[in-house]
Amino acid sequence: MERTTSVSRYHSGVSPYGVYDMVGNVWEWLATPTDPGRYELRGSAFTSPLFRGVPAVPNDADDTMHDDDTGFRCAATPEQMVPRRK
Fold this sequence. Notes:
Layout: E1 27-35, E2 38-42, E3 59-62, E4 70-71
Parallel strand pairs: 1-4
Antiparallel strand pairs: 1-2, 2-3
Protein name: Sulfatase-modifying factor enzyme-like domain-containing protein
Organism: Streptomyces colonosanans
Domain Sulfatase-modifying factor enzyme-like: 3-47
């Protein structure tokens, strides 16, 4: 497939913590600088060669880069979650 997929598409890839798509959908920006103006990316993307599909494989990019295979993950602790109102 030559594009991103919905987060819950591949149930076989869910982590023991219930997290989907840690590898292979899009490179995810981290807040970790690698050099001035550059930040770490993790997770590989749908455009990456198969050998790059490991969560720990490092990559980085210029902070002004805009690409269709790079994104970010929203995360919160359970304490930060607000219950939905019905």
